[in-house]
């Protein structure tokens, strides 16, 4: 393949042999063998040099593409062999996309441009199952979670809760809402099986503040929560960074008496291995 391209570009076997660092008889034998296998000549040879036949013209572009693809594949294999390339699958909750994930991805792409990165938005429970099942390499989720495998954990920070409520609701002069307002309308929140610990902490905090609050609608994703709020099904409590997500029919407000509410924590979890992995590399990016 490489010899055919060299002959076509050089216009003669002599010049092509020099370019390839071969003796001309060896190049001639290689070309004769190839033409015999194909059952048709690829070049018309004369004293002036070698020109492509119709058959040669028909395949030369395909040969160039195949050679380029083969070179790329070989380079990728070498890069993987020395740890410069590979594949990293990242699971994440919506909360991670506002700042933590984009910042780390920018650093990762700059330092490891040959690394294939796959992003999968998943709930806490889905990420734990995927991490233990080998379907993701690192999970960005809300702790605490129960994991049977041996993992590393990196705490990435926490955010206070703010209220998400229908846009038509009039706010008080201080621009805030109260826990009583939230309890009266009921909560749109994530299912118990998705983040059971945080859900229990939230309902417990409301109860201790004197507000028995029902979860009137479960929703698996933040966008679904906001859609339900916009539809008037209830109010919600979400991490403060959700303000970056503008949704028609929804407004955000601080909770005046919400000091006792739990915070949304964010952690990275990845399997502990005997040798460094790209999950370890990405965790280093998350540390900043």
Keywords:
288 residues; alpha/beta; Arc Repressor Mutant, subunit A; D-Maltodextrin-Binding Protein, domain 2; 3 domains; 5-stranded mixed beta sheet; 4-stranded mixed beta sheet; 24% strand
Give an overview of the whole structure.
- With 288 residues, the protein is of the alpha/beta class.
- It has 3 domains: 2-81, Orthogonal Bundle (Arc Repressor Mutant, subunit A), CATH 1.10.10.10; 86-158 and 265-287, 3-Layer(aba) Sandwich (D-Maltodextrin-Binding Protein, domain 2); 161-262, Periplasmic binding protein-like II (D-Maltodextrin-Binding Protein, domain 2, 3-Layer(aba) Sandwich), CATH 3.40.190.
- 42% of the residues lie in helices and 24% in strands.
- A hairpin with a 2-residue loop joins strand 1 (43-46) and strand 2 (49-52).
- Helix 1 (2-10) packs across helix 4.
- The model has no long low-confidence stretch (mean pLDDT 91).
């Amino acid at each position: 393949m490489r010899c055919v391209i060299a002959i076509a570009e050089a216009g003669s076997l002599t010049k092509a042999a020099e370019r390839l660092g071969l003796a001309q008889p060896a190049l001639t034998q290689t070309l004769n063998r190839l033409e015999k296998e194909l059952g048709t000549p690829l070049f018309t040879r004369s004293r002036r040099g070698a020109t492509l036949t119709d058959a040669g013209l028909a395949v030369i572009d395909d040969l160039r593409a195949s050679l380029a693809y083969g070179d790329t594949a070989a380079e990728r294999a070498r890069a993987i062999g020395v740890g410069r390339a590979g594949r990293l699958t990242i699971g994440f909750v919506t909360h991670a996309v506002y700042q933590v994930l984009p910042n780390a991805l920018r650093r990762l792409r700059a330092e490891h441009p040959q690394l294939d990165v796959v992003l999968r938005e998943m709930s806490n429970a889905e990420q734990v199952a995927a991490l233990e099942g080998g379907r993701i390499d690192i999970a960005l989720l809300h702790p605490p979670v129960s994991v049977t495998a041996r993992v590393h954990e990196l705490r990435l920070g926490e955010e206070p809760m703010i209220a998400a409520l229908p846009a038509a609701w009039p706010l008080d002069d201080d621009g805030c809402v109260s826990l009583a307002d939230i309890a009266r309308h009921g909560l749109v929140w994530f299912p118990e099986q998705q983040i059971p610990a945080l859900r229990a902490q939230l309902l417990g905090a409301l109860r201790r503040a004197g507000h028995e609050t029902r979860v009137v609608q479960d929703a698996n994703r933040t966008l679904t929560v906001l859609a339900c709020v916009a539809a008037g099904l209830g109010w919600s409590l979400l991490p403060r960074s959700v303000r970056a997500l503008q949704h028609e029919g929804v407004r955000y407000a601080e909770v005046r008496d919400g000091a006792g509410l739990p915070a949304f924590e964010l952690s990275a979890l990845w399997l502990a291995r005997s040798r460094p992995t790209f999950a370890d590399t990405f965790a280093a990016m998350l540390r900043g």
